[in-house]
Design a protein that fits this description.
- The structure is a single chain.
- The chain has 1 helix and 25 strands.
- By secondary structure, the protein is an all-beta fold.
- It has one domain: AttH-like fold, CATH 2.40.370.
- The strands form 3 sheets. Strands 1, 2, 3, 4, 5, 6, 7, 8, 9, 10, 11, 12 and 13 form a 13-stranded antiparallel sheet that branches. Strands 14, 15, 16, 17, 18, 21, 22, 23, 24 and 25 form a 10-stranded antiparallel sheet that branches. It has a two-stranded antiparallel ribbon with strand order 19-20.
- The longest helix has 5 residues.
- The N terminus is likely disordered.
Length: 363
Amino acid sequence: MRGERRAPVAPHLTVAEALSAGDLTGFARAEAPRAFAFPRDHGPHPAFRTEWWYYTGNLETAAGRHFGFQLTFFRTALAPPAAGAPARASAWAASQLYLAHFALTDTAGRRFHAWSRLGREALGLAGARATPFRVWLEDWSAASEAPDGLPARLRAAQGDVAIDLVLASDKPVVLQGDHGLSRKGPEPGNASYYYSRSRMSARGSVRAGGEPLAVSGLAWMDREWSTSALGPDLVGWDWLALQLDDGRDVMVYRLRRRDGTVDPHSTGTLVAADGAARPLAADDVRLDARDHWTSPRSRVRYPSRWRLAIPAAGLSLEITPRLADQELIVGTRYWEGAVRVEGTAAGRPIAGRGYVELVGYGD
């Protein structure tokens, strides 16, 4: 069964369309590695057309009841910044649009809930800032009073479903790609600036149709900003963020081309238990779909269960969705959900948990 949605918005805009080129005049481009600075880069980058703050995680009660959560905030510029332009007088005037997605997987209850909100950066209804860190859309928010942005508090509620979580970092920031420049194609500027916090402890409460339940677990945070992230031959991606019980974390980002092949700019990162990050090229990773699931609403067929091998790291992993149905239809349509991990590391059994995102299927 599915949770209610805030508004029945048809998915007319594909993610690939939203991140492809269009008219880029006046926007900055991600063309070369840059120096990251915190807390500044926890906040917005209005010179670029799009960016997002992406939180996912796996939680459990003391009795072992599992929940997965997703809370994501997206900023889109309505127009490029104009140097020297006078401020608009109206309190309703806004140059930025904010979108947020909130989803909860209730594994024991066999329910997946998903909602979307959309708002302008006007009258304080939505926005982002670096110091003190906060990104919000109405009463959904991620915020921190600390200079480094952690611990951060995530809060979102819709009807009788809610999360209230505090995240603390167990590892340093990971700069993805080439020192934080994540290329998505050979064309100049088809890239993003991308960093992650791959392992954060999470504690707080979850409400799923009843009284709040105390939970704890692990969370992952992704930050990206760009102007034209996807090249013209790309239709979508498969993104996996896995946290293994031996302390290692794995991110795999597989870009799919229109002809069905994997783009050579696909990449990944292996993060050691001490936080040291090692980049993974497309040839370092083997990812095979072992099963498929067809949505009863969209009729789109998604991969469902994967085998991931990273031979140089001695990893052979089986990845299984906690629920087959974790499809979001919230203005855009994609599959994103909690997964469990089992397999071997150097021939010894290993387990873990994570999140998988599948974008562009059926488009």
